[in-house]
Amino acid sequence: MRREWFPIRARLNSSDSTLVYDGRLLHGKTRLITKLRNLATRLRGMGFRPSQDYLWQRVTWPIQERRLGIRTTGVVRLSELGVPTSQHSDYAPISFGCLRRILKRIDIRAGKDVLIDYGSGLGRVVLVAATFPLQRVIGVELSEQLTRGALDNLANSKDRLKCKDVKFIVTDATQYELPDDVTIAFFFNPFRGGVLESVYQRLCDSLDRAPRRLTVVYVHPGEDAERLFKGEGPFVLREEYNDWYNPGSFGTIMIFNS
Asked: Rounded to an integer, what distance in angstroms lies between the CA atom of residue 129 and that of residue 123?
């Protein structure tokens, strides 16, 4: 579950959990001149560098989705799925480029590392991670409808994945006990408040049971995330930098090691 930055609105088809996009944006029901006017307004407000990144990602995302055989682009409001939103973020995927740059920075150990993505949504992080030689990849998601879409994406992309042990689990993250072989935990600002605090404590409990190197990647952290992971717990900030995590959105990425 993610906050909204990507401008394409989408909803889930209740019968088969496929994404249905806003026809005004993708199916030509709005006149071309209106689209161009709206785009020009957006670009003027963003400035040159964000505009350049925005246009590049809008062009390349569909290509990268076709290569992998998935459909993960768009924003899905959690309120439309009946999911509580006070401490959870709406679904919107991280950019492919930002995600791949992160995965290359964290020194994946082939056949040894296990990655978990909290708030896995339609599965972009999980499935792109599975193109790397991980031992196992897990997605944890509260919404059953989003997870059905992720499972469809897995079925369509499995022949393109290096990691063959991929699972999506529908559960409340606060109730999910972290497997003690997980070595990489990925967060794209999926939740905050008490939910994040509970998940953080489960990470700490797992380290108490099974001391090991556990890398935490946090994209676009809020105040709660910075307070917890930069506090006096078992995690040490290894790297903090900025990247274009969504079209036109430039923000913080933190990488911690236990």
From this structure: 10
Q: Please, which pLDDT band fits residue 248 given cuts at 50, 70 and 90?
A: low
Residue 102 CB contacts under 8 Å (≥ 6 apart), including other chains? 217, 219, 243, 253, 255
The more confident residue out of 247 and 172 is: 172
Domains and CATH numbers, the chain: 1-258 (3.40.50.150)
Q: Which residues contact 163 (CB under 8 A, 6 or more apart)?
A: 129, 130, 131, 132, 133, 134, 135, 136, 137
Give phi and psi for 214, each to the nearest 5.
-120, 115
Percent of the chain with pLDDT over 70: 77
Look up the pTM and report it: 0.82
Span 11-54, pLDDT tens digits? 556 555 555 544 333 344 445 666 566 666 656 665 666 666 66
Q: What is the pLDDT of residue 99?
A: 95
